[in-house]
Specification:
The mean pLDDT is about 80. The protein folds into 2 domains: about 5-55, no CATH class; about 65-105. The chain is of the alpha+beta class. About 30% of the residues lie in helices and about 15% in strands. The strands form 2 sheets. Strands 1-2-3 form a 3-stranded antiparallel β-sheet. The chain has a two-stranded antiparallel sheet with strand order 4-5.
């Protein structure tokens, strides 16, 4: 069982840091993926899941909206729901969204 954040391999490099919430409780937050964990065991679990996703070729970019707007990545709106996706994801998303039909309303 890890006793500090540096005991979780790769956690700090992946964007995890300690944060004391307004109630005085220690919380672990990830500034790249915007995740939150209340225990080091949960951070370790999330790191394991991240490694599994990366092994499958899925990588969190950690990009913030201002980076996207500055041109580092362009987003395209889904023709069915209006949500925005990168060029690698939009076709796959639109197929799923089209199959879902009118189950959701268009967001703007």
């Amino acid at each position: 069982m890890p006793s500090c954040l540096s005991d979780v391999p790769g956690a700090m490099e992946a964007g995890w840091r300690e944060y004391v919430d307004p109630g005085g409780r220690m919380v672990y937050v990830n500034d790249k993926t915007y995740e939150e964990a209340h225990t080091l065991a949960k951070v370790a679990e999330k790191m394991g899941k991240m490694r599994e996703r990366e092994a499958k070729g899925v990588h969190a970019t950690g990009m913030r909206m201002d980076e996207i707007e500055e041109g580092h990545m362009s987003l395209q709106a889904c023709a069915y729901c209006g949500r925005k996706f990168n060029q690698k994801s939009i076709q796959r998303h639109e197929q799923v969204c089209k199959e879902a039909g009118n189950k959701h309303a268009m967001r703007m």
